[in-house]
Amino acid sequence: MPLMLPLLDRLGLMACAASRIASAAAVLAGFAALPAMAQGQAEVQAEVQAEAQVAETCLKAASGLSLGAPLPRLKARLAAGLPALIVAIGSSSTRGVGASGWPQTYPEVMQRELQRLRGRARIEIANLGSNGETISGQVARMERDALALRPALVIWQLGSNDVVWPWGGIGPGTEAEVVETISRIKASGSDVILMDLQNAPLVAGARLRPAMLDLTARAARAGGAGHFQRFRLLERTVAAGVPLSALTSWDQLHNTDAAYDCTGRAIARAIHAAAR
Fold first, then answer.
1. How far is it, in rounded angstroms, from Cα 103 to Cα 111?
2. Closest listed residue to residue 164, CA positions, set 268, 253, 100, 46
3. Do residues 91 and 242 touch, judged by C-beta distance below 8 A?
4. Which tens digits make up the pLDDT trace of 205-235?
5. Which among 62, 81, 89 is positioned nearest to 269, based on CA atoms?
6. What's the CA gap between 225 and 271, in Å, rounded?
7. Residue 197 Cα to chain centre, angstroms
8. What is the maximum span of the chain, computed from C-alpha positions, in angstroms?
9. Dihedral sign from CA coordinates of 170, 180, 273, 266
10. Of 122, 121, 90, 84, which is closest to residue 105 (Cα–Cα)?
11. Which residues does residue 125 pair with via DSSP β-bridges, in sequence order?
């Protein structure tokens, strides 16, 4: 028994030493990882700065673009100090597919920019984007999903899936359907803005893209609605030197954070101007 105590002591000392060695090794490994961590942080920061630069270039491209119609209902509510609900209805680019998170979707960006421009105004947003939806699907749920909320303004993003996918298309009655739906929205007490296509490879190369852009512009004029020219905005951005890849997600259809940021802030500024 007396011989066991020194042995146990030695084992304890060895275990303690091993623990210290392991701790020292972990510290050294941590120091060794610092350059890689710093490089990773620098790369993230550079990416954020690049996206911000793209968004600012895009916003400059929005100069001179207006909605082409006033927003009297929204203006009246804001002037009276009443809360104003803006409904954004559309497909996946309204929902925000391609964005890095919900705050980066165009409706969320738009709300923040409107709050900045309008100070104490109480502006709320309902994002009713639905992936893969066509014009007919949006028309079918307009009353139930959008107008039932009694918004001051409806932003209707339309046409992308109709020109890209075989389940869409432009029928002989599509334009009349859009104009009639604008009338229904206005009759319910809401202003209307039509938002046209995103500029992305799958959209830009679609055979029906020019026809849909023309249809949207004509329908807005005929119905007395505002028209946010998203395709033209992003087209101008590319002409200003921004590669289309900086505006387009990996799927060649949806937007990046930078493009959503620009879209949200640009339409907010157009709304602000039209509701003054």
1. 10
2. 253
3. no
4. 999 999 999 999 999 999 999 999 999 999 9
5. 62
6. 12
7. 13
8. 104
9. negative
10. 90
11. 86
In this prediction, residue 1 carries a pLDDT of 42
Q: Which two tokens stand for residue 148?
A: 């039932």
pLDDT one-digit tens code per residue, 38-65: 666 666 565 667 788 998 999 999 988 9
Distance between first and last Cα of the chain: 95
Cβ atoms of residues 268 and 71 within 8 Å: no
Tokens of 22: 């392991």
- Asked whether 253 and 200 are in contact (CB, 8 A), the reply is yes
For domain 46-274, which CATH number applies: 3.30.230.10, 3.20.20.105, 3.40.50.1110, 3.30.450.20? 3.40.50.1110
* Predicted pLDDT at 123: 96
Give the residue among 87, 62, 86, 63 at the shortest CA–CA distance from 75: 86
DSSP per-residue letters across 193-262: EEE-----HHHHT-TTHHHHHHHHHHHHHHHT-EEE-HHHHHHHHHHTT--GGGTB-TTSSSBPHHHHHH
Please name the residue that has the structure tokens 């028309």: 139
